[in-house]
Design goal:
Blueprint: H1 2-19, E1 28-30, E2 37-39, E3 73-74, E4 80-81, H2 92-107, H3 111-115, H4 128-133, H5 135-138, H6 141-148, E5 156-158, E6 161-164, E7 170-175, E8 178-184
Antiparallel strand pairs: 1-2, 3-4, 5-6, 6-7, 7-8
């Protein structure tokens, strides 16, 4: 009986050690001079939203169906959000890829390109010209932090659209086969 107990304890110790190995983690390599991202396993960045320096994002596998495409999602803070379908997003993964591009435009301060993704007029921005003139005031440190650190797995959505940032910084919705920014609260 003692031998069986020792054997079980040994197996638990071995299993715990093997479970703790980091050999299967995907590591993202970023070339600071360009926007090229590669991984140690050959996964292309266009297929994965791997953790990008400056963006606190989980890995999103765009090749798999989004598990909340057709059902509601319960967030860790007990917020229940509607399914992507019910919110009007017929392909959640396409939206998440689009949102990643918006984050990269903000990170690069590419205000000209970002302005092309906004449906003017907004409640507090009448035109592209006004947006470009006030870009630095809008995208202050706090605003940038909220949008750049939005976890794609926990994007709030309802009938109005999808929300980036914990304080409602940016609302997006589908438009003509793509997506657009419909509100910016700063």
């Amino acid at each position: 009986m003692k031998k069986i107990g020792n054997f079980i304890l040994s197996m638990i110790a071995i299993g715990t050690t093997l479970y703790g190995c980091d050999d299967n983690k995907v590591i993202l390599y970023h070339d600071n001079d360009t926007t090229n991202y590669t991984t140690n396993s050959g996964i292309r960045s266009v297929d994965y939203n791997a953790k990008i320096p400056g963006l606190n994002a989980q890995v999103v596998d765009y090749t798999l169906p989004n598990e909340y495409q057709h059902k509601s999602q319960l967030f860790p803070d007990s917020t229940l959000v509607m399914s992507w379908d019910a919110a009007g997003f017929k392909n959640a993964n396409s939206f998440l890829k689009y949102f990643k591009q918006i984050q990269l435009l903000i990170r690069a301060d590419n205000k000209e390109e970002l302005s092309k993704h906004i449906s003017f007029p907004l409640k507090n921005l009448a035109s592209k010209k006004e947006f470009l003139e006030n870009y630095d005031k809008i995208f202050d440190e706090a605003y940038r932090y909220e949008v750049l650190n939005q976890d794609p797995s926990f994007i709030f959505r309802n009938n109005f659209g999808a929300l980036a940032g914990h304080d409602g910084q940016m609302w997006l919705k589908p438009k003509g086969g793509s997506f657009t920014i419909i509100a910016m609260n700063f």
